[in-house]
Every structure is written in structure tokens, then in C-alpha cells.
Amino acid sequence: MIQQTPGRIYLADQRGLTETSRFRRHSTFNFDGYQQEFKEPFGRLRALNEETLAGGHRLELTAETASLVLVLPIIGAVGVAGGSTVATVQVEEAQLLHLPAQSVISFTNLYETELISFLHIWLTAADFPAPPQLFSFDFQALENNLAVIVSAAAQAGIALSLGRFAGRQEAVYSPQNAEAHLFAFVLAGAFEVEGRLLHEKDGLALWQAAAVELEALSNDALVLVLEF
């Protein structure tokens, strides 16, 4: 019998929804006012939010504990201010910043009328603050390849990889740390990841994984793999 890597699926249609006239947030884990059973943090990973922010608006959030926040734009640029960081983060960039406990981070839509969309991923900070860092990448480098965007060796023990695949293309993710937790999140399309079927905006938590096998089940399928 083939032994399956331990894991847990987080379905897209079971994400929490927080919505006002200014923003719409889908939360994979408990976050801010959204609190539900079985949506507790996965290891250091405390939140994975997909945020849509209306034109000209600003959103402020408070870090309850010392946190690493990874910001990844999906549509449009987002202004980010938090800790020692003030930056405009574009598509094909990822911003990593450290927030002391009880500090505030703000996200600003710099366009007057256009919506923007971005991920903000929250992890418990390591013992020592990580310096802010901006990572750039080219979507062409993601074609049928899991490209490393953030290396675990560079920043506080976390790594981020992205890949965009044609249908039936395969990849294997090898963790940089044998004891790491992994979280895969499908941004577009569908994948089979370690024997689990994942559709758009589904997530999969994995642990005790020596390697992770992925296969795209649709064209232009886009997946994120976070290691921590």
C-alpha cells in the first residue's frame, strides 16, 4: 500500500467572508472578526487572506502578536505600510515584513476607481525580527516550473514558490527543511497535489513530506507553495 503524506484540505467555499463597501476578504484561517471551529492556525501559519480593496480606500489591521506578513499582489499595485516598511508592491513582486506585537499595518489602493486584489499571509515571527525585503520575479520563469520566490535561507525560515502549468504538466516540490510544514494554495485552475484534488482557491496543509508531487489538471493553472 502506498503511504499518503499526512494533510488536510481547506476548501474554497468554506473560507470566511468579511465584506464592507470598502473591501472584501476571504480567509482560509480564523482572522480578525472571522472565528470558526477547525480554522485554527497551522503551525506558524496563522492567516492566508485574499483581499479585494475598492479604489482610493485604505485598510488598517493590527498584529496581535509579533508577525511576519507576506504580501503578494494578484491584480494591481498595493501600498503597504507597517513596521519599518513603506512600499508600493506591484504584480510580480512579493513583500515580506516584520510587525511587532500590537503594531498596525495598512493596505492602500492607489487607484481612484479600479479594484485591486492581493494575498496577505501571516505567520508567527521567529525569535529575531527579519528585515523587510522585496522579492521580484518574472511570470515567464513560472511556466511549467515551481520557481522559488522567497528562499528559506534568506528570511526567517520561510520559503515561497510559485508555478504556472499547462494541463497534465507535473512538478515535484522538495522541502528545504525535512521538518517543515507545507501549505499549497491554488490561485487558478485545478491540481492534484499528493493525491488530493484541489480546485481554485482550495488549500492543502501537509506535514512529514519528504517531497510533494503536483499535477496540473487544467491549462494556466497557478499554484503557490509555502514552506515554514
UniProtKB/TrEMBL annotation:
The family database entries (Gene3D superfamilies) matched by this protein are listed as: Jelly Rolls
SUPFAM superfamilies, per this entry?
A: RmlC-like cupins
Tell me the organism.
Answer: Hymenobacter nitidus
InterPro entries named in the record: Quercetinase_C, RmlC-like_jellyroll, RmlC_Cupin_sf
Protein name per its UniProtKB record: Quercetin 2,3-dioxygenase C-terminal cupin domain-containing protein
Provide the Quercetin 2,3-dioxygenase C-terminal cupin domain boundaries: 158-227
